[in-house]
Every structure is written in C-alpha cells, then in structure tokens.
Amino acid sequence: MKKQENKEENNNPEPKGKGFKAAFWENVKTVFLAIFLALLIRSFLYEPFRIPSGSMYPTLRVGDYLFVSKFTYGYSRYSFPGGLPIFKGRIFYKQPERGDVVVFRFPRKPNIDYIKRIIGLPGDKIQVQKGRLYINGEMVERMPKERYIIDEYVKLPEYYQQYEETLPNGLKHNILEISDSERMVDNTEVFEVPEDSFFVMGDNRDRSDDSRISVGFVPKENLVGKARFLFFSHSDKGSILAPWTWYKAIRWNRFFNRIE
C-alpha cells in the first residue's frame, strides 16, 4: 500500500522552479507592501526629521532626531514626498497655536525644510526692540535662568544667557540670548502678520534665520507638521569609525522627550 502511494506521488512531481518563483513573487509583494505602508505613514501620520543647525537651542540640539505629526494642521501638497502639486491650499485645516514648534517649507525655496516656533498668528503685530519681544504692543515676559553653554558641533564653546519666556497664551519655553543688541535681530520694524500666514522665530534668538530676516512670513500651505517628540539624539563626541565611542556620543536622556 505504501509503495503504491509513493508511486502515485512521484507521478505528479511539482514543476521545477515553481517553488522558487512563488517565493520570489511573495517577497516582491512583501517589499512593495512595506514601501506602500512607509509612504502612507510618512505622508499622513508621522515623518522623521534631523536637526542640522543650532537655531532652536536649547529646545532642540544639533543631532536630535524627531517625529513630526502630519495630521495636526491638515494636509497640503507639502505633506507628500516631493511636494507634488496634487491640490492647492490645505484640507482638514486646523490653525496652529502660538508657541507650537513646526516644520515648514522655506517660502523662497520650498524644497528646504525649516523648523521654528510660531510666535505670530494672522493679524498679530510682532516687533523686537532691544532684544525684547513685543506681541501686539505688549512686551513678552521673560525670567533669567542659568547660563547656557554650547560645546558640541562648534570649534569653541559658546556662552549664552538663558531665559524662560511666557507667551500670551501662557506657554512657557526657554530661549537663548547672546545680548540684547545683536545686529538686526534685536531691533526690528513692526511686522503685521498677513491672513493665513505665521511669524516664526528660533529659540536661539541671536543665531536664528527666521521671520525677522530671510524666512519672512510662512504661508499655512507651507506647514509640514508639528514637532512632537525625539526618538534619537547624539553629540559629536564619538566617531563613526570608532564603534567603542558611540555609547558616549548618544544622548540617552533625550530619547522620547516631548517637544514643547
């Protein structure tokens, strides 16, 4: 009986290569599904960004990696990879709040991402005089804190005065100042924020190219999303060619910190 069963099985052998082809196409489908899901998440939910400059110290440091929520303010063409002109304007729009840290496309070169804090809402009047921020004619309160030293990704240590600033809606956050008389950034004209646009500033007030200088007003269409939390961070204290130094370079205490 067993011999007969074996003979019948041998009479219907699986064609050579069929198993390999099936496995190959299954792997292809898996890869395409993974790519599709990644694009879906990146376009509609969360997108990772790396901080390349020091304009947002002390809130964000060079070498920080963060997630930005794409759905917070609705969607525009810049919500999608490549900024494809799928539609104009913004859909499912919700206006940002004063103090939100946002990623946006640089108005003059929309292929470049910037990250700053929203200071002025549509209709606001913003001015800086002798280093002090004024919103709608009222000086924004700030309280001095300890000195702040930046000694990473710089040739020589940089020393700043740190303040806790309280925006009109009650949001408190830290800022840095070298002095209250730094070039054009500490004494500006009055900026009246147009409709559907925002005035943004870096928390490192004297080392930030923002709405006071070349960024100008940020149209709502250029918003990419709201910075939510860090998922990785490293300093320049290690070398990619020396794996035994990586542990010291990683800023373990910044992992999964909320951005406020």
Describe the structure.
It is globular, with a radius of gyration of 26 Å. The longest helix has 27 residues, at 18-44. Residues 1-9 have low confidence and may be disordered. Strand 9 (158-166) and strand 10 (172-177) form a beta hairpin. It contains 3 helices and 14 strands. By secondary structure, the protein is an alpha+beta fold.
Descriptive key words:
260 residues; alpha+beta; 7-stranded antiparallel sheet; 4-stranded antiparallel sheet; 3 helices; 14 strands; 31% strand; disordered N terminus
Mean pLDDT: 88
Helix content: 10-25%
Shape, please? Answer: globular
How much is the radius of gyration in Å? 26 Å
What is the total tally of β strands? 14
Q: Strand pairing plus helix content: what structural class?
A: alpha+beta
How much of the residues is beta strand, in percent? Answer: 25-35%
The arrangement of helices and strands along the chain is HHEEEEEEEEEEEEEEH
What is the subunit organization of this protein? Answer: single chain
> Within the largest sheet, what's the order of strands?
1-2-14-3-4-12-13
For the record, give the distance between the C-alpha atoms at the N and C termini, rounded to a whole number.
76 Å
Question: How large is the count of helical segments?
Answer: 3
Low-confidence stretches: 1-9
* Largest sheet properties: 7 strands, antiparallel
Structure, briefly:
This protein has 260 residues and is an alpha+beta fold. Helices cover 15% and strands 31% of the residues.
